[in-house]
Design goal:
Structural class: mainly alpha
Largest sheet: 2 strands, antiparallel
Strand order of the largest sheet: 1-2
Distance between the termini: 39 Å
Membrane topology: Multi-pass membrane protein
Oligomer: single chain
Domain G-protein coupled receptors family 1 profile: 19-264
Helix content: over 70%
Number of strands: 2
Transmembrane segments: 12-28, 40-64, 76-102, 109-129, 155-175, 207-234, 246-267
Order of helices and strands: HHHHHEEHHHHHH
Radius of gyration: 21 Å
Shape: globular
Number of helices: 11
Protein name: Opsin 8, group member c
Strand content: under 5%
GO molecular function: G protein-coupled receptor activity
Amino acid sequence: CDVYILSEHTTGVLLSVLGNGLVLVISYRRRKKMVGSELLCVNLAVVDFLCCICFYPLSILSSFNHAWLGHHVTCVYYGLGCYIFGLCGMFTIAAISVILWLDGANIRLVCCASWLIATVWSSFPLFGWGEYVPEPYGLSCTIAWHSYHTSFKDAFYVICSFSCFMLVPVLLIVMSQIQILYKVYHFTYTLSARGIRTNLRHTEKRLSMMFFCISLGFVTAWAPYAVVSFLFIFHKDNRYMAPGGFVFPALFAKSSHIYNPFIYFYFNKAFRQELRCLLRSFCPRLARNLTSVS
């Protein structure tokens, strides 16, 4: 089991670093052409890339050690960092879901606010309101969900973390995506009824589907981890948080860092063109093969 966890974790980190690194490089190359909505995708790529670079290697090293590597300091470092980046990713996904109601000027403000709120809320355990502890499997650290049973202030922090920063954003994502799909369907039906076929309609559909897939993937990846954490909040025994039953939802949740770049390249034609240009400059033969496959 440890070998499987190590291989899955290492493969996920490498794929995430490669994919999100390409997204960031391509975004920099076309920074003058980017529209406001793409800034949220870049912010999400920054979250995924830095999380895999700065924190997940510590978890991989702990897999080699078969226990958490380091003491309380490294656990706080890992838990604090992953919680900041996790909240920022959640807020960014929620902003992507309501992109139709944001303009270019507000998107930059949303990105800054996401980092600020995530950092402030994640810092409270450093001052005694909540704490960061190793997860049951011992290969990563997170919020001490079991502190719900220790004190009122810790219970309040756990409930707020789960409801305000997990449940509310997920509900917002789901409701927004339903409304986006309805508007896209209504818009497409109206133009089709009038016999109008425009590139704008096709672009809007692909953009909306890209945002929908990103949001759906994020919710799907984190749903098992959220359910397990929720069960652990309200049960004192370890029946719902046995190590074998906890590690797989945790690994599945971290897979959300991997597939977003593939979604970008599939739905965004400009990203694919920039990728071919980038490959052509480094490896002309590979670029020609990629062009023929496309």
